[in-house]
Amino acid sequence: MRISFGRPNKALARDLETENFRLRSLTLLEAMWLTDSWRGDFELQGALHRRRRPYTRWQWAQPGPIPHHVTRFAYDIIPKQTGRSIGVHGVRLRDYRGANTQIMLSDRSWWGKDAVIEVRAKLINHFFHHADVDRFSSTVE
Question: Which pLDDT value is given to residue 1?
Answer without folding.
Answer: 38
